[in-house]
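Listing S7. Sequence submitted for prediction.
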Amino acid sequence: MPKLLNKTIRLFLDSIGRREEYEFYLEKFHGGQTAAFAIVCPERAGFEEVVSVFNFDIEFLLQVGLFPVILLTGEDAEGMRELLTAAEHPYSIMSIAGSEVDVQKVADFVADAKAKQQATVLVAPSLARAEMLPGLIPATAKRVHIIRGAGALRNRGGEHIQYYYAAKTDPAELAEDDRALALEVRDLLGLRPGIHISVASPWNLLQELFTVRGAGCIVRRGSHILRIQGKEELDRGRLAALFEESFKKKMASEAFLDSVVEGFVEENYRGAALLERHDSGVYLSKFAVGTEARGEGLANELWREIVAQHPSIFWRARPDNPINHWYEKQADGSHRAEKWRIFWKGIEPDHLPGVIAYAMSREDDFEPS
């Protein structure tokens, strides 16, 4: 990663999202061990209307030291190449290569383009995207960004969705026009588990890349969430490490674990939710997702598991907690206090004073910052 971003680039990134987020992603992307930062796959439909935006995205990535491979495939490949090269200053930012899928030759293409501070363009008119990508992943890149004018995948109502869990969601739940793409990326995840796939518009690709919230649709197979009954089955050491990483504070005590009656934990402890029993429902004592897993939709997966089992739930968060905007969407209501915001879902109105008092009375489990 460039040791010092120039002022103009930093101001632009500041306009996209939070500084700690884009700095995290810049470091993560630069730390990759693949030939290219990502494989970017623009689609033909309406591309002539957004080609200048797409080129801006690519040029910006080059300016922050990220070198993508642009993949053009199928019968639209030559037309896409012409659109790209007809745009303003195309040859200054792109290096056009053939349809070679030999891993070493592609790596050589990318290395040559990097030396020229350019993005690599692979043009493969005789092959479909689904045929090309398995040969390029994971050696060329572990990230695939499908760029289209329609943006993120949509549900049957035509609304964009932020996450599509390929192993858990029936493609029939998507807009009819998006089902073929959903099947394609599902099959790709089956062939190459662990890769990152997103579907976005060129208008918001940079926000999709550099913010936790994103601005497209991330496609994942779906996590294996363990439902653990009782605290005895919990790995206290891994939980403590997860919470300290997530909250960026040292734990003052693990005593709160003694009250846990149920937990929902991602199998590798990349995320966890711990519950305690209460007469009015359950109290969510801890909810955390590790840094590496943020932006993947794991929080949504954990939440779906919780509410499927517990319709009445309440929890608290610091007023400056950056995910309070997400909590607001999940909650039926909230109460603001001096140190805490108390949220609830499915709690009877007559029980609210009691759950608010309970949440506010709990000790802080972390040392002061």
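Caption to Listing S7: primary sequence and predicted structure tokens for the chain studied. The chain has two domains: 7-220, 225-361. The first helix runs from residue 7 to 16.
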